[in-house]
Write a structure and sequence with these properties.
With 190 residues, this protein is of the alpha+beta class. 21% of the residues lie in helices and 32% in strands.
Length: 190
Amino acid sequence: MNAQQYAGGGSGRGRLAPLLIILVVLCCLVAAATIAGYFFFRPQPVEARPVVLIESPAPGSRVEVGQMVTVRAVARDPAKITRIELWVNGELIAAQSSTLPRGTSPFPLTTYWTPGSPGSYTLSARAFNAQGTHAHSSIVVEAFALADGDEDGVADDADACPSEPGSPLADGCADRDGDGVADGEDSCPD
C-alpha cells in the first residue's frame, strides 16, 4: 500500500468521526427532550378532597322558629375523615372528631339546631381528612314563625283561646293554677 492510498483511507475515517459526534449529540438531545417531556407532561397527583353531603333537612326546606331541627350530614374520603362540623350562618353549632387516629369513612354527623327567628339560614357541613384537606357543602333553609296573637307560646291555629294569653298545658287558655285544665273548665281554677 502506498502512502497516498493510506492517506485516502484516513480521510474517510476523518469524515466519519464528525458524523458520529453529531449522531451522539442528537441522541443525547432526544433523550433529554424525552425526559423533560415526561416530567413536564406527566399527570400530577390530584389532592384528595372529602365529599360532604347534608342529608337533612332538604335544601329549601321550611322549618318552624323555635322547633328543633335534626341535621344529618355525612362525609366520605379515601384518605379518611378526622373531623366534621356544622355551621349555621357562619357560626359553629356542632363538631365531632373521629375517635380513630387516622379517621374513618364514611363519617356521619347527626345534631340538632333550633332557629331563633324567621328568615333564611345557611347550613354548612365542613369535613377534614387525615391529610388536613377540607371541603364543605351548604344548603339554605327558611325559618318561619306561626301566628301567635296573644304571645302565649301556643300558635293561633292550635290555641283554644287565641285572644287571651294562656298556658301551653291548657291548649293556650288561662290556667291560673297550672294544672293543665283551662280555668273555664276547671272546677278549682285557683
